[in-house]
Amino acid sequence: MPTTMLDRLSAIEGALPAIDDGTLRLSYAEVRQFVADEQRWLQSMRVRRCALLAENGAPWILSDLALLACEALNVPLPPSFSREQVAHVFEDAGIEWLLTDAPERLTRDHPTFAYVATSPRTGLTLLRREQCFIQTAPSTGISKVTYTSGSTGAPKGVCLRQSTVESVTGSLVAATAGLGVRTHLCLLPLATLLENIAGVYVPLTMGAKVVVPPGHTMGVGYAGLKVPLLLRAIDAATPESLILVPELLRVLLHAVRAGWRAPASLKFIAVGGGAVSTELLQQARRAGLPVFQGYGLSECASVVCLNTPDHDKPESVGRPLPHAKVRIDASGEICVSGATMAGYLGARQQHSAEVRTGDLGEIDADGFVHVRGRVKNLFITSMGRNITPEWVESELLSEPALAVAMVSGEARAHPVALIVAHPTADESAVDEAIARANSRLPDYARVRNWAVFPEAPTPANGLSTANGRLRRAEIATRYHQLIESLYDHAIDHFSEVS
Predict the structure, then answer these.
(1) What is the Cα–Cα distance from 64 to 198, expressed in whole angstroms?
(2) Single pTM value for the model
């Protein structure tokens, strides 16, 4: 009986299509041969501690699987990381080897790395750092270190055992097997743990095909989206499943409203990585997008909870998957155990088997988990009301006219917001959108004044993380005067509530 993902990969009918990136189209038999050849090549080079920095495509997946077969440490690097963040990872993880499709840029930015060889199978370049000082070695059994961008400039390395990754993969296979998905299209970067596990390991474990075009051919990048390219890529792939972050869901919903028809092949669209309002999910479903919300974090090897067609409450993030145990502590924080990280790389303190997520939440009588916001983002108005900004923001962002919203209101009578409007929305459209969102909120949580972001938050300007989460402290500092001015000119029809 197969017990690991690689074992299960070997048990699948060899003629079935496995990976398609538009250039390489590989069957399961060819994938097995490629991975075995790549494994032998990496072992001949004595690669043990390796970073992987490459565009989405078959070479990335094959390298990832080969490093797993070698039992080498794999450190995937998000393409969005700045030169400084990449340098931090190299030092923090003691990276000696690097597989990349951009060797010229990497050796220019990090001259301690030098060319060694080019993989005859994947075409990726192998670089090596001659003088490598390992400051913090991961504990035994760690197969992957995934770096979270978090809310600061220095990313943290989450150490994951392969057994933990296998546990999450198995849970997702069990939860989605009844859908009969045969083709998954990867839209997110493969260095994103969610896409790596749910978009690659799960389909390959189930004998499905992974379609993985390079990001630039789909118009998907951290600097922005080219929507026509994205829609053409989805149409061409005729996928049965996708994984989206909330912003991509809003983009697809807007496209449907503008006349685009989603492929009839779609059976399951998972959305996660940020707060999504129930209204937005319902709008997407009415538009023919089979969207289901989930919840997870890198510290728990990605997915913890998931809604499915058989077990669904759109207002929740789903029930915990079989591998996960979820509880709510006395302060309302979501705590997860069952399959968690081995700790942060270099952390001095002993890691607990239970992860404190930093998220506020509830578990209802049917076992569905509801996420209410971040513990650290909670603010208390001068009226004594506790408000999680994500709650208000999710209602705002269910309105097509609004693309980005950040709500604040600590020690103030009411919330205000900085927003980025959709390019077609004028000031009156924004006012109307905010009024509609306010109508779905209690009086104390309604936004009473707003202003446009002087500069849309992006990873490049330091105002959002790579996965689109707002860097609230940085925004509050940079735009302090603008936010204060919103209270100087606030709408004066605020009404006190009991």
Answers:
(1) 14
(2) 0.87
